[in-house]
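User: Earlier you gave me the apo prediction for this protein. Now I'd like the version with coenzyme A bound, so I can compare the two side by side. Same sequence as before, with the ligand SMILES added.
Assistant: Got it. Here's the input I'm using:
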Amino acid sequence: MEGPRSPRETELPQVLDFLNKKLRNEASWSIAAEYPTAFSSNNLHNMRIIADEGHVLSHAVLKPLIIKSPHVIYKVGAIGSVVTEDQHRGQGLSTQVMTDCLKSASEQSCDIAILWTDLFDFYRRMGFELAGSEISFVIEDNFDVPPVNLRFSTDSKVAPDAIYRLYSTHSVNSVRTIEETRKFLAIPQTKVYTAWEPNGQLAAYAIEGKGVDLGGYIHEWGGSVSKLMALFSFIRAQKNQPYTIICPRHAKNLINELRRKPVTVNEGYLGMIKLVNFDQLAAKIKRAFRAEGIADIVLEKHPNHFVFGIGQDLFTINNETDMVRLLFGPVDYRAMDLFKEETIQKLEKILPLAMWIWGWDSI
Ligand SMILES: CC(C)(COP(=O)(O)OP(=O)(O)OC[C@H]1O[C@@H](n2cnc3c(N)ncnc32)[C@H](O)[C@@H]1OP(=O)(O)O)[C@@H](O)C(=O)NCCC(=O)NCCS
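And here is the structure of the complex with coenzyme A:
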């Protein structure tokens, strides 16, 4: 048995074959079509396998993302397609592969790692915790919006640069190219809904589905709130059945509008997050506080605990996973009853950090 190591270019078809058998048995497309930026030959150095006599036994892939937000630019290592051959499970292979992915994430200066799973306890052993916020709205019924002069379309042949232009206006997004946007638009089972101005400019877009995942879920969208609401109303009428819109917590205006409509609201987590380079992230956060005029922010890692607070109003945190929630939420500093009101007001200028990963970036 050898590895964990990156597959050689000549081994990529074999790795994809392994993943397709294990994770996409029912699908008529390759997993590479679903994650075009993760399973490309220029991301081979971020794939990890354990192999034996030419057979892949265990795999995981890392996709580093640069996420821009109003206060902090993060480097995030998204990890996915974690799988071990059935007869070789329980031998520590996935743990080894994951440990190597996390080492690589750390060496590439990622602040955090993130993954999406329902095996919470498996990843908690490795220091991941459910964190960050996601608000989803099930659009139960048709709803009206004030009249708008827009043309709606379900044609998926949309120029990637038009989508990219609206995507770029988000306050929190990953650094992408137009070429990547073109690849994402070609993912199997993708439905594209668009709203167009009379002059032919794209006013809003919404993306549903991503390979075997996210059918019935709008996981990417863009445009002004009023145009998006008109598009969401069109989608409900078009589908003639409920569907779900996924939103970051900081999309406050859109969330306020959606709450007024016939919706069911669910508050969830962005994903499972692990701190990878705490000191680097802490330096970014402290810089963000200083830019707000708060120079006495304390965010320190000691051998067995963290110290967090402002000035003399400090709090000791013993678990790294508690620290993840204090930084990325969900957290209500007021309800915790730990800090003085003055401290809470200062903390809330930056924390919880605005963090979001749009659906096309999840792996
Ligand atoms: C989950 C999976 C990747 C684990 O692979 P593996 O190589 O068997 O994992 P390891 O041997 O490194 O770790 C196994 C350990 O995790 C534990 N574990 C496995 N699945 C678990 C789960 N669902 N919840 C909690 N612990 C779990 C085992 O009990 C074992 O613990 P031990 O070391 O104390 O005995 C593997 O079962 C698999 O391929 N499943 C199908 C694909 C899948 O669901 N992938 C996850 C997608 S996010």
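For your comparison, keep in mind: The first strand starts at residue 2 and ends at 5.
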